[in-house]
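step 4 of 6: structure.
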Amino acid sequence: RKEVEQDPGPFNVPEGATVAFNCTYSNSASQSFFWYRQDCRKEPKLLMSVYSSGNEDGRFTAQLNRASQYISLLIRDSKLSDSATYLCVVNKRGAGGTSYGKLTFGQGTILTVHP
Amino acid sequence: NAGVTQTPKFQVLKTGQSMTLQCAQDMNHNSMYWYRQDPGMGLRLIYYSASEGTTDKGEVPNGYNVSRLNKREFSLRLESAAPSQTSVYFCASWSVFGAANYGYTFGSGTRLTVV
């Protein structure tokens, strides 16, 4: 089983739609969680960190459920510019409580927003 | 502009040739990383350097070597390139001690083809 699993999609939605992405992680020692966005042939960029209490940034809402080892990203009022691949990312602590920022990436979920 | 700079952006090698991918960051980050990204595989960690003077293997280190030349620079070397090393390579950096930007900053990537 992969450490981080995402539905690869693709998701094709019209402008203005609400779309949700899910992600599960297998390692209960995972400590930090992120969503990254990657445009075609570009580097990944941090979209938002994910906190246990849930967090919102404009049209984007991220949720974490530690008991179920599940992370979600909700995008409201989709824009054409939201078309990209969304990467679910986790960070677990290593020996001695350190993590050194070794992130584990999911395969990504492809989103296409059409007019 | 502050960030992570990778060179070259594109490279074609013949099987058996060697080359070094260069990476430099000007954000005074302690930790640096090399990932490769292949279709359907997501990003996989090759090597990382938690701090200046240290390097450690990641998930897929075989066929690669690294050098943390100083705090700014982290290079990746392919001693004898193989077609299986055809991939997109990303360098990233991250401050371990509570940087405001909690997450990676990636370079723009190197697209390597081994024929």
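step 5 of 6: annotate
 - Chain A touches chain B through 21 residues (CB under 8 Å).
 - The mean pLDDT of chain A is 89.
step 6 of 6: archive
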